[in-house]
């Protein structure tokens, strides 16, 4: 076995991808693992698992004098490091949130703070604190109805178009009241409508 061995290392508090020399002894490996698992070398029990998806134990790295290569560890297998004496280390304490006192703030106390998101929204009138402006609804002029004849003035001087009102009301594509006119001659989109 030559080159570098690429494995995943998992412990109660960590998970990482590591590279080791296959000639490294188990004792040296344990010293290196202590640095990032937090488990003292003397308390480590290292199992080799097939893969991250297959937790079958294929070897137990039990002889500290043997090199990793002796156990036929392959690339991308998992070295599972267990703590034989968790009371002597911090194992599990970093991920156990049951021992952490939770910070709680009542709604009333939060509302009194001036450095909160709520205070920011109130100061800048954002979200539910935005001023409620009543939308002025346009009304349809009484003298325009569907079927009426009309003349539409153009932006070009002297050019006006005559047609029939085919639609009056609100649309989905824009706000306000719209009047749809079908021209007598084929001007405009498609067939003049």
| CATH second-level architecture of the largest domain | Roll
Task: Based on Cα principal axes, name the global outline.
Answer: elongated
Which ranges are low-confidence, i.e. pLDDT below 50, for 5 or more consecutive residues? none
| Series of H and E elements | EEHEEEHHEEE
Side by side, the strands of the main sheet go 2-1-5-3-4
Q: What is the CATH superfamily classification of the largest domain?
A: Phosphatidylinositol 3-kinase Catalytic Subunit, Chain A, domain 1
* Fraction of residues in H or I helices: 10-25%
User: How large is the share of residues in beta strands?
Assistant: 25-35%
Number of strands: 8
Oligomer: single chain
What is the fold's blueprint, element by element?
Blueprint: E1 5-10, E2 15-20, H1 26-37, E3 44-49, E4 57-61, E5 78-83, H2 107-112, H3 117-123, E6 149-153, E7 160-170, E8 177-183
Parallel strand pairs: 1-5
Antiparallel strand pairs: 1-2, 3-4, 3-5, 6-7, 7-8
GO molecular function, one term: microtubule plus-end binding
Domain CAP-Gly: 169-193
Main location: cytoplasm
């Amino acid at each position: 076995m030559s080159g570098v061995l690429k494995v995943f290392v998992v412990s109660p508090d960590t998970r990482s991808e590591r590279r080791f020399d296959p000639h490294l002894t188990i004792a040296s490996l344990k010293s290196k693992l202590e640095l990032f698992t937090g488990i003292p070398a003397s308390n480590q029990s290292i199992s080799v698992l097939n893969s991250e998806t297959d937790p079958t134990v294929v070897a137990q790295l039990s002889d500290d004098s043997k090199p990793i290569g002796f156990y036929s560890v392959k690339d991308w297998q998992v070295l599972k490091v267990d703590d034989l004496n968790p009371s002597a280390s911090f194992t599990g304490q970093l991920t156990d949130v049951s021992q952490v006192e939770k910070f709680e703030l009542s709604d009333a106390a939060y509302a009194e703070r001036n450095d909160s998101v709520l205070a920011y929204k109130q100061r800048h009138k954002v979200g539910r604190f935005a001023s409620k402006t009543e939308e002025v609804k346009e009304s349809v002029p009484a003298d325009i109805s569907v079927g009426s004849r009309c003349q539409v003035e153009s932006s070009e001087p002297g050019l006006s178009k005559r047609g029939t009102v085919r639609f009056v009301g609100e649309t989905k594509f824009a706000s306000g009241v719209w009047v749809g006119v079908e021209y007598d001659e084929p001007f405009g989109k498609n067939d003049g409508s």
